[in-house]
Design a protein that fits this description.
Layout: E1 2-6, H1 16-30, E2 34-40, H2 48-64, E3 79-84, E4 97-100, H3 103-109, E5 118-123, H4 133-140, E6 145-148, H5 151-158, E7 164-166, E8 189-193, H6 202-209, E9 216-221, E10 234-237, H7 241-250, E11 253-256, H8 265-272, E12 276-280, H9 283-286, E13 301-304, H10 309-320, H11 323-332, H12 346-349
Parallel strand pairs: 1-2, 1-4, 2-3, 4-5, 5-6, 6-7, 8-9, 8-11, 9-10, 11-12, 12-13
Helix pairs in contact: 3-4
């Protein structure tokens, strides 16, 4: 069986949504599927000069292979990585199933012929940071099967008159786990994910933590560190999966400051590695942090309801400076504590998702695992 995932661009940097898709690709390839990852240099809808620059990037990255995720993630050797100029019909694959991963990729594959395979749309967020809400919702009404990573996205899609299959993110307990107990971590070390989008809340954390003495501040992300950040902040750009696990295990506290998430994947990974967690009260965090669990399985992990940045930073630093708080965080941070799938890929290859298989497409020949 052949399946193609369509990303909105290159995967040279470790973005969360791309990381989940690549995990699915690895799991399916290990199960015998022929998997292609399509990555376009240009999605259109840009001024002429910008599109010309993207055209140049296509040829540059094709030579340097900067689009490939292999620098920061291990990819199964039978996964084909295909770097294409755009998502025009000429680049449509011959597959049994094709899976879009964003508004623009869904709009593109909607125009592809039936030979591209049955069409699916993996909704990982409410993409209003890039498009007007009406356009995002219109993409959900395209004629393809919708998959959503969270209950709240399923509900939002339903409010647009469509139905989505719930496909929660799986957690990789091989890539992420607790290597260092709480007593061996720096008591004042706080970690958070940085992103250039204001809605991700990184600037909120910096503004609040800069006022608190005695902390070791560490951030990571794909964007460059902000100009004007305090010099005490250590920043790791594009950390490998191994380095990211190390950062999670060095920190005592993870702060998840986002104003909106489809699913808070870094927060889940931090929990796997034994971090205490302070998270904003948003729907994407409530997917895996439930109120009923906070005093039992999730001791030491906090959702602060209707509190400003100063309030939940205060709670974070208060927890860091109490022995009991760190012990509770350690007690709650074990593997299996987060109520989602055990490993990425299980949901897609499990028998509950036999509908992904369909009938073989009958394409002749086999693609090389590597696009050239």
């Amino acid at each position: 069986m052949k399946v193609a995932f369509v990303l909105p661009g290159g995967a040279g940097e470790p973005a969360g949504g791309s990381r989940m898709i690549l995990r699915y690709a690895n799991a399916l390839a290990a199960g015998g599927w022929a998997v292609t990852i399509l990555m376009p240099a240009d999605l259109g809808e840009a001024p002429f000069l910008r599109r010309a620059l993207r055209h140049g990037r296509f040829w540059t990255w094709r030579f340097t292979r900067a689009y490939r995720p292999t620098r920061w993630m291990t990819i199964h050797p039978q996964v084909r990585l295909s770097w294409v100029a755009d998502l025009g019909v000429s680049h449509a694959p011959c597959a049994d199933s094709v899976i879009a991963s964003s508004v623009r990729t869904a709009e593109a594959i909607a125009c592809w012929p039936d030979s591209a395979g049955r069409k699916f749309y993996l909704v990982q967020g409410y993409e209003t940071w890039d498009f007007p809400p009406d356009r995002v919702r219109a993409s959900w009404r395209l004629p393809m099967t919708k998959l959503a990573v969270s209950d709240w996205l399923c509900e939002l899609i339903a409010s647009s008159g469509e139905r989505a299959v719930y496909l929660p993110n799986g957690l990789d307990h091989v890539a992420f786990g607790r290597d260092r107990p709480a007593e061996r971590r720096a008591a004042g070390q706080i970690l958070w994910p940085h992103h250039w989008l204001a809605q991700k809340g990184s600037d909120d954390v910096v503004a609040a933590l800069a006022k608190v003495p005695g902390l070791q501040l560490v951030a990571f992300g794909t964007a460059s560190a902000r100009l004007g950040w305090p010099s005490a902040i250590r920043y790791f750009k594009n950390p490998s999966q191994t380095r990211l696990r190390g950062l999670y295990n060095e920190a005592s506290m993870m702060i998840a400051p986002s104003h909106e998430e489809g699913w808070g994947l870094p927060a889940c990974e931090a929990l796997q590695c034994g971090c205490a967690l302070v998270a904003t009260d948003i729907r994407g965090h409530r997917e895996f942090l439930r109120e009923a669990d906070l005093d039992t399985a999730f001791r030491g992990f906090h959702i602060v309801i209707n509190a400003g940045i100063e309030g939940w930073i205060g709670k974070a630093t208060g927890l860091l400076h109490t022995t009991k708080g760190l012990a509770d965080a350690e007690a709650g941070g074990g593997e299996g504590r987060v109520p989602v799938a055990d490993a990425a890929g299980n949901a897609l290859v499990g028998e509950d998702f036999d509908w992904l298989r369909g009938e073989p497409c009958g394409c002749e020949g086999a693609d090389d695992p590597e696009d050239r």
